[in-house]
Specification:
Layout: E1 3-4, H1 18-27, E2 32-33, H2 44-53, E3 61-68, E4 71-78, H3 85-95, H4 98-111, H5 117-122, H6 133-142, H7 149-155, H8 172-181, E5 185-188, H9 198-210, E6 215-220, H10 225-238, E7 241-245
Parallel strand pairs: 1-2, 5-6, 6-7
Antiparallel strand pairs: 3-4, 4-5
Helix pairs in contact: 1-2, 3-8
The chain binds adenosine monophosphate and manganese (II) ion (3 copies).
């Protein structure tokens, strides 16, 4: 099945509105879709309605920012009740520090000779609660500081580089608990991106499962085929459900378009097999 269970709209750091994403997913042959905005479920109703209107089965989604072992880790939640009060409160708390962080990112960039970046980034922000590094990256590309967003993240905004501001996000325990208590399944997003040592990675996976986490992204936009093979093995070793999602943000910036990924390896159990009752289907 062509499932795409990871992407972003303008409600977080994507450039397209939920309705445009639903249409693009359908046009690209997606058969099961989830919008997973960062730390936010404000686009869920629009995404679901737009998906059902174009005949596309839908799962609710979000991608929660977590601090684990002093590293930012992303946990995707799928198939939860988006009206759940403790999930909504947890996400609101997780979003809470973003504006102060963004002001400090602007100050750090100013010290490196790039003035006005916070104000510039705001030009790209649709949800005032959700200023992200992606919005700074778009501003730095638009003003010619960098050629593309990949260059931005090589030279700025990452640890040790100008514009980087350390931040404490949700705990792994809380993120997994918010998702599972709202009836959803928690999934470790793009594990190859964290560059953990084998011991750190083992700790992440075991603690994640101890808190009730059940899935891992195996096929995703930032994974090479070698990464996918590695995490297919990890999924089998830990008995985790496997997920697949492009992490699409924008037609101009993203590695992978909606619905354009390789299949999950056949030996894995797809995360959607555990979410059959949570899938919302067109009439
Ligand atoms: P934030 O949640 O504000 O820390 O921003 C994180 C977002 O920045 C991610 O969801 C990606 O969209 C983007 N991002 C982070 N690191 C990179 C990178 N190395 N290359 C491209 N995009 C990145
Ligand atoms: Mn993003
Ligand atoms: Mn992510
Ligand atoms: Mn993402």
């Amino acid at each position: 099945m062509n499932a795409d269970l990871h992407c972003h709209s303008a409600v977080s750091d994507g450039t397209l509105q939920p309705e445009a994403l639903a249409q693009r997913a359908k046009a690209n042959g997606v058969e099961l879709w989830a919008l997973t905005d960062h730390d936010e479920v404000g686009g869920q109703q629009r995404a679901r309605e737009a998906a059902l209107a174009v005949g596309l089965p839908y799962l609710t989604g979000t991608e929660i920012s977590v601090t684990f072992a002093d590293t930012t880790v992303h946990i995707v939640g799928l198939g939860f009740d988006a009206d759940n009060a403790s999930l909504q409160a947890g996400l609101a708390a997780t979003r809470g520090g973003r504006t102060q962080r963004a002001i400090e990112m602007g100050e750090s960039l100013a010290q490196a000779g790039i003035a006005g970046a916070y104000e510039g980034a705001l030009n790209y922000v649709n949800n005032p609660d959700l200023v992200s590094r992606t919005h700074f990256a778009r501003h730095l590309v638009a003003t010619g500081v960098c050629a593309d967003t990949y260059e931005v993240f090589r030279k700025y905004l990452t640890e040790g580089k100008p514009g980087y501001v350390p931040h404490r996000w949700a705990s792994l325990r809380n993120a997994v608990t918010w998702i599972t208590q709202a009836g959803g399944v928690a999934v470790i997003a793009h594990p190859a991106r964290y560059k953990f040592t084998p011991n750190e990675e083992y700790a992440l996976f075991t603690e994640f499962m101890m808190h009730g986490g059940r899935g891992v992204e195996v096929v995703t936009g930032s994974h090479s085929s070698a990464d996918a093979a590695k995490y297919a093995k990890t999924a089998q070793e830990f008995g985790l459900l496997a997920s697949r999602g492009s992490d699409f943000h924008s037609p101009e910036e993203s590695h992978a378009d909606l619905g354009s990924l390789p299949d999950l390896p056949a030996k894995l159990t797809p995360v959607w097999s555990a979410l059959a009752s949570r899938i919302q289907r067109p009439a």
